[in-house]
TrEMBL record:
Residues 3-133, 146-273 form the EamA domain. Coiled coil: none annotated. It comes from the Bacteria. The lineage of its organism: Bacteria, Bacillati, Bacillota, Bacilli, Bacillales. This is EamA domain-containing protein. It comes from Paenibacillus elgii. The chain crosses the membrane at residues 34-50, 62-81, 93-110, 117-133, 145-162, 174-191, 203-221, 233-250, 256-273.
Length: 283
């Protein structure tokens, strides 16, 4: 699959499943410990995939790979902390503010320009996001929400670095550096608060590690095939997926603004996907 928009949508669906698992695990396991197990399980799996596919470690571009790893690790820790402290939907909304940071970084760092068609579609997705965010109704203004906002900034920095790395580095290597760095960063943070997982906790943690790795592969591939800002805005559909899980498992009924915002986001994602497909056929 080489459609960056569809890959971004798939990654959002997979990550929404991860979010629900993280929320469940965080009832008994500290967020830093959840991040550690998520990362170390993914590191082991991706290393095995690199060996199987004979993907070598690069000797060039190491500083940028490490930078991507650090930014991803900080995002992961901040996001998991936010999920454990405030409602899942609020945490998801905060994390999905990253496209606003990406738009600025993509222009400043990547020197990217959006096509005219993308410029007409992206505002539709942003309008949908505003209907979902409901800034004047947001209920979690606190230091915890500020950490969630920081997670969006770190995610934006990671997205831009992935876009830069994807020209010369294999997807598996980029993901490996992210997960390995996150493992190292989370160790000292969980050291004093480590909780021995129960059998159910182990099920959650292993599932988080496997599911999140799949989502990370989809997301990294998306950045290799599409403009960074387009990918980030497309990921707003993840808020819709989270609302869907909330309805199915916790009977959380979305209000009218959430429904309208979801429709706008899905419509924008379909338009972006068709635009990319048309461009592919032209070549």
């Amino acid at each position: 699959m080489k459609n960056g928009v569809l890959l971004a949508i798939f990654s959002s669906l997979v990550f929404s499943v991860m979010n629900a698992l993280v929320k469940a695990a965080s009832v008994t396991i500290p967020s830093a410990e959840v991040a550690f197990f998520r990362s170390i399980i993914g590191t082991a799996i991706i290393y095995g995939m690199m060996r199987y596919s004979k993907v070598p470690f690069s000797r060039e571009g190491i500083p940028l790979l490490v930078t991507r790893g650090v930014l991803g690790a900080l995002y992961l820790l901040a996001y998991f902390y936010t999920i454990s402290k405030i409602p899942l939907t609020d945490a998801s909304i905060l994390a999905h503010l990253s496209p606003f940071f990406v738009l600025a970084l993509a222009v400043l760092v990547l020197k990217e320009k959006l096509s005219r068609r993308a410029l007409t579609v992206l505002p539709v997705a942003i309008l949908g996001a505003m209907l979902l965010i409901k800034p004047f109704q947001f209920s979690s203004y606190s230091s915890d929400a500020l950490v969630g906002l920081l997670s969006a900034f770190f995610a934006a920095g990671a997205a831009v670095s992935i876009r830069m790395l994807s020209q010369k580095h294999h997807t598996y290597e980029i993901v490996f550096y992210f997960l390995a760095t996150a493992t190292l960063v989370s160790v000292p943070l969980m050291w004093n608060d480590f909780v021995v997982p129960s059998a159910l906790d182990w099920l959650y943690l292993i599932s988080i590690g496997v599911v999140s790795l799949l989502g990370q592969l989809f997301l990294t591939k998306a950045f290799t095939h599409e403009n960074a800002a387009v990918v980030e805005v497309t990921r707003y559909i993840g808020i819709v997926f989270n609302a869907m899980w909330g309805f199915l498992f916790w009977m959380e009924v979305p209000d009218l603004l959430t429904f309208a915002g979801g429709v706008l986001i899905v419509t924008a994602c379909i338009a972006l996907s068709r635009q990319k497909r048309s461009q592919s056929k032209a070549y």
